[in-house]
Each structure stands twice: as structure tokens, then as C-alpha cells.
Amino acid sequence: MADWTEDDLQLGLKRLGVEPGGVLFVQASLRRVGPVVGGAAAVLRALRLAVGDSGTLVAYTATPENSRTSPLYRAATAGLSAAALAAYHEAMPPFDRRNSPCSPTMGRLSEELRRTPGALRSAHPQTSFAALGPAAGEITWEHPLEQHLGPDSPLGRLYGLRAQALLLGTGPRTFTPFHLLDYQRADHPRRRYSARVLDERGQAVWRHFTGLDFDDSGFGELGRRVAPLVPVRHGRVGSATAALVPLRAAVDAAATLPSLVWA
């Protein structure tokens, strides 16, 4: 079939229930959306038109590659000698909230939003978020190192603002808001993190801090158990299946389940 157009995507978003105003957190697989005339920029334009001038778009723009504790780092450094490891550390680009691209694992749409003039980004060197719209400053203004994905992070502010989550070609297996549940467990495992960042003088330094040890392996099953409990709207945008999820309701419903599969 022919490539999808912005008008096609806008129609799909409207049918799904995306309306002007409010806050929309987007997790997208553009590969599943299919070919679009204008690429990722056109998808972002369609989303901006769907939420309107009074709406705010948010994307996860994480950069796990600059951490000594991420799975990506461990895979890249496995088997290196001490000298090679030291050279690798020296060459690691420090996180710069204005210029560091988000990880390719975040998807092209997240990077497109981050690079858009007017977008703001939180300062966490591993789990940053970018936002575009009137509420962008409120969402991204502060992001403590110890609060990767916690109540005092942009994710927590999305919860407080009663944002909607748009799963565009993705599913509950990658539903980042479920990590807010981790912070409700007093006994949740913690670990030491290290990340390379730019300091106030523009020098590359290492920041060391303690945070929760995350595991999202049970999110798929958790999402399936939550789905009947919240008013999720389903549809198609381009070639992708799509779901519009009330973020706060989904997290709250998951918290009421008698036995969390990832606990």
C-alpha cells in the first residue's frame, strides 16, 4: 500500500480518542506504524496537531549507554582487558541534556521530539524525559539522581497531571509508568549507579548515586491483568495497533492487585 500521510495519522489518533489539551506520554514503534510520508517528523506533527497548542507531548529519552551499570554497558565491555576498559571509560560521551541523543532503543520518535525547537528535557543522565508544550517546564524542571522513575521524577509528574499514555505499536511489556510501583515497596532492591556527565564547567565527570534496581520482565503479564480494570481505548494509527491508557488509573489499578508478578 502507499505510504501513510499526516492526515491518515491524525484521523487514526482522533478515532482513538486523542483530544486537544492535556498531557500525552507517547511510547511508539515507528516500524510498526509503517512508512509515513515525511518520516518521524510527520508523525510528530500529527501528534502535535492532535493535542493542539494547549496540549503537551512527552517522550522517554533515556541514555543508558553512558552508565557503568546498564545492560548495554555490560554487553559492550564484556571481556575487555583493564587497559581497554579504561580507554572505553575515557571515550564514553558524557550526558548533556541539550545535546546528547537518546538511546536508539528509545525509538526515532523520542529523538525527534527531543530535537524539536522548544522541547525541554530533564537532567537525569540515565532516565531523562523530553516534553513539548505548555506543561513541559513543570514536567521536566527537576529530576534527582536517586529518582530515576520515581514520584519526584517527570514520570511522577505525569501521574500527578493525570496524563494519558499512547502506546503506538508497543504494549504493556514496555509500559514505563509501571516503574512507579517499584517506589511503593519499602523492600525493593537498591543498587549503586555511576554515570558520566558534564559538570557546571563543561568537564566530563562521574556521578555516583544509589537508586532502585529495576526489573521490567513482568510488565507484559502485569499489563494484561490491569487492562480489564481501566478504560483503555484501542484502535489503529497507520499500520500499528494503538492503545490510549489513563496513566494514573493504570498504575493505581496495578497497585491493587493481590500479587504482583514481578515482586
UniProtKB/TrEMBL annotation:
Its EC number is 2.3.1.-. GO terms for biological process: response to antibiotic. It comes from the Bacteria. Pfam families: Antibiotic_NAT. InterPro entries: Amioglycoside_AcTrfase, Antibiotic_NAT-like. GO terms for molecular function: aminoglycoside 3-N-acetyltransferase activity. It catalyses: a 2-deoxystreptamine antibiotic + acetyl-CoA = an N(3)-acetyl-2-deoxystreptamine antibiotic + CoA + H(+). SUPFAM superfamilies: TTHA0583/YokD-like. Keywords: Acyltransferase, Antibiotic resistance, Transferase. It is an enzyme of class 2 (transferase). Belongs to the antibiotic N-acetyltransferase family. This is Aminoglycoside N(3)-acetyltransferase.
